[in-house]
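Troubleshooting log. The previous structure file for this entry was overwritten by mistake, so regenerating from the original sequence record. Sequence copied from the archived sheet and checked twice against the printout by T.R.
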Amino acid sequence: MLKYFIIIAALFLGSCQEQIKNKFVKINGYNFLTREKSIRLAKDNAASSFDEFTEKLANKNQDNSFEMDLDIKHPEFWSVDGTRIYLMPGENLEISYDTISKTYSYKGETEEECEFLDKHGMYIYGRDLSFLYDGKTVRKSFEETKTVIDSIVTQKLQVLNNTKGLDEHFVSVQRMRIIAHQVNSYLNYYMFSENYETCSMGDEYETESGRIFIESTRNLVEPLVQDLVKSAYIGVFDIRWVVDRCKSNHLTNFPEKSIWAEFYIVKDLLKCFDDSASAELIAEAREKLAALTYNDFINILKPEIEKLAALESGKPAIDFIIDDIEGKETKLSSYKGKLIYIDFWASWCGPCKQEFPHFVELKNKYKDVVFLSISIDRRQEAWLKFMEHKQKSDVLQYHASRENALITWKISLIPRFILIDKDFKIIDAYAPRPSDEGIEDLLSKYK
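Regenerated output below.
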């Protein structure tokens, strides 16, 4: 009897180990002729709206191949250097790029799904604007254009339904993606209409004619968007983008207790984190964190609150290494004992360049303050090249790795300015800009 128990236990353990092992997916890529030394893989889910949380980098071998193991618990959409793929737990995938035909080929359990994504791409913006195709499907009136859009939708749904061998979940998601692009096409018609008023991107419907157009489409769009919301496919970029667009134009709302409502709680808080590390904001964030129910959002928000709490006024400044133009390393803390005013910038940032003359002005006025201009260019070479032509000044110029500066100091927007006191404690992690009123009062107070 004991022998049979041991055999059954061994079979059960082996089965469990197989299930655990089969969560992992191995991706092998071949002939990836990129200039970069690594291949970027990005998971398409709601967390991808919050920047660095979903990216992985695979080292590229000398033969331009790479491999990456991913822990996949549910079917997921990923992109690999721009091409979209579909992954399922335990199902490996090979991706090859043909330099002659400039196409990808796939081998594995989800190859049909990957080929479908490759062949039937839908693009929210760019020239396509979903199903408007750079205006080629636009007609004189919205009603005529709607007829064309609806015929495209019907055709795409037929192709999807008639394609054999596709995973059921994949088909369901693609069906909702098509509806999302249908809605996006309806909304984009306004930009081709004779009533369109030129405005900033994102403000298309803030004009009088824009608001009239939105109201005219409400009865058509709202039921479709509610289908998208009910599907809960918040992890799919197209769907998330269209729902977000409709939300901003008051074409949809969400139940108070829903994945969409929690998504916007996290999104709005993280946006606030770009501007302040106040005790009030941190307390509010912790209260809202306690009410969240979706683990993905909890796992995103919780560490971000702790990072923000480390930037409160009076906390010890976070030290990191900076490199000067000659390549000599220095610690930020080496300037302890003096008031430190830091300018985080990049060579491609227009507003950063506009602030620099004001930064120099302050440097010339406040001789006892250390003014540090720290570039966070991804490539140090870009910074060095820019410095060859940059306005000469006495401001100390440094470069910091993005990992050191961006993550520890929560820098997502630049220019960003930080003020540190003589004891190397934070005065303001979101200090006023050199051109702002109030900065001179702070410098005078703490110098």
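Residues 1-21 have pLDDT under 50 and may be disordered. Archived copy saved in two places this time.
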